[in-house]
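Q: Convert this sequence to structure tokens.
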Amino acid sequence: MLQRKSARLANYDYATPGFYFVTVCCQHRQHHLGWIDDSGWHPKEHADEVCSLWLSLPQRFTGLLLHSWCIMPNHFHGLVELTCQTQAQQVKLHDPIRVFKSLSSKLFSPQKLWQRGFYDHVIRSELDFLRISEYIKNNHLQWQLDYFNNLVQGRGFTRPA
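A:
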């Protein structure tokens, strides 16, 4: 059986306090969450609830702070911070992401919303933090050039009428 290669940094403790950039992609990069055109963002059913679930994560996880985030037609970006905490309160990065994916998936049942896993990037400098914050803030404006948009367009995606 073919084994997937982990995208995680080897020997890195993902409970380490700091900033992380996270991307969660929809199954097969399908536009389950909405669409973007010249007039702006158009959420589909449940997109607002997905955002509310994201915003509720700090209530579930002490030691988790949310910074910039955006919902896109077929993925979700978030900039999160794990803060100093006691051993009993320790949060690993995958814990809130797993809960977010699980709860939001229930909104779309029986359709599978998210693909397996998620992308993360450990932010190691203020410049990196500012660059990623700006990327998230402007993500909707760059949709026509977005990697995730171009992947789907080749599969015949058409915007809802």
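The longest strand covers residues 18-25.
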